[in-house]
Amino acid sequence: MNGRRYITALLCLLAAPVFAQGMTLPDARRVQLDNGVVFVVSEKHEVPLVGVRALLRGGAAHDPAGKAGLSSIVAGLLEKGAGDRDAAAFAEAIDAVGGSLSASATLETISIDGEFLARDTDLMVELLVDMLRSPRLSPAEMRKLRDRRINLLRAAKDNDPRQLTAIYGNAFLFQDHPYATPVAGDEESLAQITPDDVAAYYADYFGANRLVVSIVGDFVVADMITALSDAFSDWRTVDGPLPGLPDAERQTGRRVLLVDKPGASQSYFWIGNVGVARGYEHRAELDIANTLFGGRFTSLLVDALRTSAGLTYGVRSVLLRPGTPGSVAIVSYTRTDTTVEAIDLAVSLLGRMRNDGFDDTLIASAKNYILGQFPPRLETAAQLAAQFAQLEAFGLDRSYIDDYGAEVLNAAGETISTVIEDVYPDPDDLVFVIIGDAGRIRENVAKYGPVTEMPMSAPRFRP
Q1: DSSP 379-411
Q2: Quick check: 41 pLDDT over 90?
Q3: Which domains can be identified in the chain, with CATH numbers?
Q4: How far is CA 145 from the centre of its chain?
Q5: Which residues contact 10 (CB under 8 A, 6 or more apart)?
């Protein structure tokens, strides 16, 4: 190792323990009521704020066939009136005290996130309970929300396909697996959603035995548990366990989806395969590898495609890690006339990483980067509430957070290389999704594998 590399590595290792400080969760109390609802509550008195995350197990992976986006519509409607307040009054109650309270869906959950001043904790709990137990689910608001989302999808197709590349990618990769479901739906599925569908989804998925409520902030734990217990102890349960999701099979060989956008001046591409789940054993090693490959501005992909070759303004490697194995992908865009050049370079870099791994100096820099980025994610009451809720919902214990800093520090180059080979696909086993002017790139991209073609104007994200 030359002198400069030695000094860099030494400084990174000396700094790392400093960055690792504070990378543990505070004490919290967990309470489970007889009806199944779980509360995780923790005091944090440094600032007079209270943060909340409520998670309902379900999400887009459980949307009914042909109704993709239903869980997302339901989540959106939670903000559009609940209890005695219509949509305007509900929004005004939050704004009047400078709070925040919003709902959204992911593949496997519907979440409500909020932050209020400590003096308004009672109002926060009241609004949260109303959202969960007595949402208005107004048909008129549902139609407005549905139509707006359809229009937003159409606008993205016209103006900025970068927002949609990963949606097309995961839909084509996972095919009939639930992870192919676009969380926000597509034009076709959204148009099919009715107020009756919304009511049925609420009846089937909203209940105490699917709920986790995590609250962190400036309050007394015993008082908060009493308030939550009073609010939820008599809430109904929903029938049956949440259906399990199968592991998707990794793809062998290559296949290509070409999404035709006539006249496009750029091509947008997603290259990937099935990866790993949230609970993957070597998470720290994988995070180091992904940081170096395409997870930061000085990564291998950015340096080669953007800095050196000037083929793109943005490229990244993306790990989707839900409850069962998600996807691992390279995502970027380039001029139409450099489509093949950019894709070839990205695929060659994947092969290079799998063959060569990363040297000790780069690994040390990635550790330093991760340990510097992670603690700020555990600073606010809302951030901590989110972490506690995620751990509970996905069956992970607090060591998932508390041991992470040590796992990053102790990650060895040999294990990182093994993880790269385990997680990142062989260049011969790839799914390609390319959005662009098919008339100009069709023949050239056929070299990557059998091509399936669809127009971007199609109201779905896969053929």
Answers
A1: SSHHHHHHHHHHHHHTT--THHHHTHHHHHHH-
A2: yes
A3: 29-232 (3.30.830.10), 247-455 (3.30.830.10)
A4: 22
A5: none
- Tell me the per-residue pLDDT of 149-172, one tens digit each, with 9 for 90 and over: 999 999 999 999 999 999 999 999
Q: What is the per-residue pLDDT for 81?
A: 97
What is the DSSP code string of 242-258?
A: PPP-PPPPPP-SEEEEE
> 265-278 pLDDT, tens per residue?
999 999 999 999 99
Among 9-18, 188-197, 227-236, 387-396, the least confident range: 9-18
Q: How far apart are CA 254 and CA 273, in angstroms?
A: 10
Planar angle of CA 194, 195, 198, nearest 5 degrees: 95
Provide the 10 A C-beta neighbour count for residue 226.
11
Please name which of 402, 303, 276 lies closest in space to residue 362, comparing C-alpha atoms: 303
Evaluated on CA atoms 24, 278, 190, 198, the torsion sign reads negative
pLDDT tens, residue by residue, 346-373:
999 999 999 999 999 999 999 999 999 8
Structure tokens at 453: 């073609």
Q: What is the pLDDT of residues 218-229, one digit of tens each?
A: 999 999 999 999
Token pair, residue 348, equals 């060659």
What Cα–Cα distance (Å) separates residue 441 from each residue in 26, 268, 445? Answer: 54, 12, 6
HSE-CB for 295 with a 13 A CA cutoff: 18
Exposed/middle/buried for 149, CB within 10 Å: 0-12, 13-18, 19+? buried
- Cα(307)–Cα(159) distance, integer angstroms: 26
User: Residue 375: is it exposed, middle or buried by C-beta count within 10 angstroms (0-12/13-18/19+)?
Assistant: middle
Q: Which of 8, 163, 146, 180 is nearest to 74 (CA)?
A: 146
User: For the whole model, what pTM was predicted?
Assistant: 0.92
Q: Which of 40, 38, 114, 37 has the alpha carbon at shortest distance from 79?
A: 114
pLDDT band at 21 (very low <50, low <70, confident <90, very high): very low
